[in-house]
Design brief:
Length: 232
């Protein structure tokens, strides 16, 4: 699979590189739905273990998961529900006291809500790459939770709830983690779609703007090589 993945990326004018710690980062400028469908079974075999994938968005979730090899053996349940806030990621309450790698993590996806601004940013209404971008954002939270103690996470939740500057720091570090995992172009696709909505919801200050993401990507050697290539 690894060889196939590298071959696929080379054929599609994408980049694969080793990071300083030896792990591989791969960057894809634009995932094409139809092309990716052909890889579904390989992706499922490699990244689908211990996962409850979201019905209707299985492929997008697997592509997002492929950017987080550290989550390969982690229990993750993607749940389609009607919650406040379009997507949400958290450890499952009953496994909170377990060590990070043994917990079950939940990614909640709101699919039902309608009649307000957030309707625009429901997962089902986003373009394919933006869907991968937002799922990558949620998995960046999961990856962060992985090596944190339960006590630390509890403290985090309290700080997140009490301090808007901590909330901003927490979300900005999450976005940087998405970029460090190679899904920066997908993060940008999501930001292009939802940033204005976040501003209208008075949450824009918590997230990188599309301009900020562009600036970071253009100064990151993993991305710059692909910056001027044509979209497929
Ligand atoms: Zn977040």
């Amino acid at each position: 699979m690894a060889t196939l993945l590298v071959l696929y990326l080379i054929l599609n004018n994408n980049s694969v590189e080793n990071t300083f710690d030896g792990t591989q980062i791969f960057v894809v400028k634009n995932y094409a739905d139809s092309l990716e469908r052909a890889n579904y079974n390989d992706l499922l075999k490699e990244f689908g273990n211990h996962k409850k994938l979201p019905r209707g968005f299985e492929l997008q979730a697997l592509i997002a998961l492929s950017h987080y090899p550290e989550l390969k053996n982690t229990n993750i349940k993607f749940e389609l529900v009607d919650v406040e806030g379009s997507l949400y990621s958290q450890p499952e309450a009953k496994s909170l006291l377990s060590p990070g790698s043994e917990r079950t993590y939940i990614v909640l996806i709101d699919t039902i809500k309608n009649g307000n601004l957030s309707t625009l940013t429901l997962l089902k209404n986003l373009p394919f790459n933006a869907q991968i971008g937002v799922l990558s954002h949620e998995l960046a939270h999961t990856s962060y939770y992985l090596n944190k103690s339960s006590l630390y996470l509890l403290g985090d939740m309290i700080r997140y709830g009490c301090s808007s500057s901590y909330e901003k720091k927490f979300e900005n570090e999450t976005e940087q983690r998405v970029i460090d995992h190679g899904a920066g172009f997908q993060l940008l696709a999501w930001s292009n779609f939802q940033y204005e909505v976040k501003i209208r919801e008075k949450k824009g200050h918590l997230y990188f703007s599309p301009e900020k993401i562009k600036d970071i990507l253009q100064n990151n050697h993993h991305y710059i090589a692909l910056w001027n290539t044509k979209d497929e």
